[in-house]
Design a protein that fits this description.
5 helices, about 25% strand, elongated
């Protein structure tokens, strides 16, 4: 006996097979409370302001949630700040759920900058100096000495450049000269003729004069080589090419400031203190000679910056920070000249010495300061690197040679690192950026 097939009739009169569908009870939907317009003020944003310990303005009764007549009368005693996050499923300030975990509380009050950025700590009245983080910034404010982080390169006292000749050539010349001297001395003693010794002297004398000439004019020859080096166009430069780029510079993420004159927004700063040593005076450094100026204290800093090529208009990032090898050729200017008569007339100089724990002895001192200010015209020589559509100029891995300059009787000069050159008049022709 077959089983009977169940059927039912719809509301429109159509007869269909199967059991009638059970209507499920619909869950009540919760409507989100309308959030008033805050105009960008975090103090009016409710729960977001409470996360950062910022006092929140009390909203009017019209902006609060509607009251229900059948609600529990004890709910009136609850504060608005203690509302559970489960009653506000659309709230982004506190996430509900078992895996949300406790909310981390900030260690200190948060301050609202004029730009709307939320930062920790009190809102300072003055501008914040880039490169200072935490305690180093406070220490520098007390001592007055700039204390930059690892992103700023501290350059040594001088540029590393010199002459480099093949060792084989040096050994050959030394052996020939030694043999010539021995033969000449033997013939002069035995035969009483100094022809060979005179010939050796005629060869040695020009060589000695050539070495002295190169030591005197080596730096000027290097500067002349950099001025004559042709400028390259960044648009057509390939990766790994050694180029010279001339253009206007702009500061990177860390602008620098000179220590004495307080010249702001610089890409390179240099402050040097020199002392004059007379007969039997105190030496400023181990290499200080009598009747000359010796460097006693030096501060040279350089950071990453940008340069805009004059020829193509492209902008490149110059990687001069983070301990990179840099050879700056910037002529400093004398800002303070101290003698025994005018020593007490410069309180700012005495304060600068005290901030660096330098004694103000009864000696002649001279303070020189140089800088490359933002907007100055600078020439940079380095290697082109392209990475993820970012054009960079980095220091070369090997020293760069100028080659033999026969017309000037100069030997090949080698210089290490990224080369920076700037005009002597640093305040002229500065482009405002």
């Amino acid at each position: 006996m077959g089983s009977r097939i169940q059927s039912h009739q719809l509301s429109n009169g159509l007869l269909v097979s199967g059991r009638p569908e059970q209507l499920k009870e619909r869950q009540p939907t919760m409507s989100a409370r309308a959030v008033p317009y805050t105009g960008g003020d975090i103090k009016k944003s409710g729960e977001l302001g409470k996360m950062f310990d910022i006092p929140v303005l009390e909203h009017s009764s019209s902006s609060g949630p509607p009251s229900h007549p059948n609600s529990n009368p004890n709910s009136k005693q609850q504060q608005p700040s203690r509302i559970s996050s489960s009653s506000q499923p659309n709230s982004g300030s506190v996430r509900s759920g078992s895996n949300s975990g406790p909310m981390r509380k900030s260690s200190g009050p948060m301050s609202l900058q004029p730009t709307g950025l939320i930062t920790s700590g009190p809102l300072t009245s003055g501008p914040r100096r880039s490169g200072h983080l935490g305690q180093p910034e406070q220490a520098s404010a007390v001592s007055g000495k700039a204390a930059y982080g690892p992103a700023v390169t501290s350059v040594g006292e001088g540029v590393r450049f010199g002459f480099r000749v093949s060792k084989a050539v040096v050994w050959v010349v030394m052996v020939v000269l030694a043999m010539g001297l021995l033969v000449g001395a033997f013939l002069m003693v035995a035969v009483k003729k100094a022809v060979v010794l005179g010939a050796v002297g005629a060869v040695v004398a020009p060589m000695g004069l050539g070495l002295v000439w190169n030591f005197i004019w080596g730096r000027k020859g290097l500067l002349g080589f950099m001025r004559r080096y042709p400028d390259a166009e960044l648009r057509g430069a390939v990766d790994g090419q050694y180029v010279k780029v001339t253009g206007v510079v702009t500061c990177g993420s860390i602008p620098l400031e000179s220590s004495y004159q307080r010249v702001a927004r610089c890409v390179f700063v240099s402050t040097e203190l020199y002392e004059y040593k007379g007969w039997g005076g105190k030496s400023a450094n181990p290499k200080h000679r009598c009747f000359s100026w010796g460097c006693r204290h030096s501060e040279k800093h350089v950071a990453d910056f940008y340069i805009s090529d004059f020829q193509s208009g492209l902008r490149a990032l110059v990687k001069a920070g983070y301990g990179a090898k840099v050879a700056p050729f910037v002529k400093p200017a004398t800002v303070v000249d101290i003698t025994k008569e005018n020593r007490d007339l410069s309180p700012s100089f005495l304060r600068w010495l005290a901030e660096r724990n330098l004694s103000s002895d009864d000696c002649i001192m001279r303070l020189k300061e140089g800088y490359i200010k933002e907007g100055s015209t600078v020439s940079v020589m380095g290697i082109v690197r392209r990475h993820d559509n970012v054009l960079m100029i980095v220091p070369p891995s090997e020293p760069i040679s100028t080659g033999c300059q026969w017309s000037r009787c100069l030997l090949p000069t080698y210089v290490e690192g990224l080369i920076l050159t700037c005009d002597d008049n640093q305040n002229a022709d500065v482009v405002p950026v």
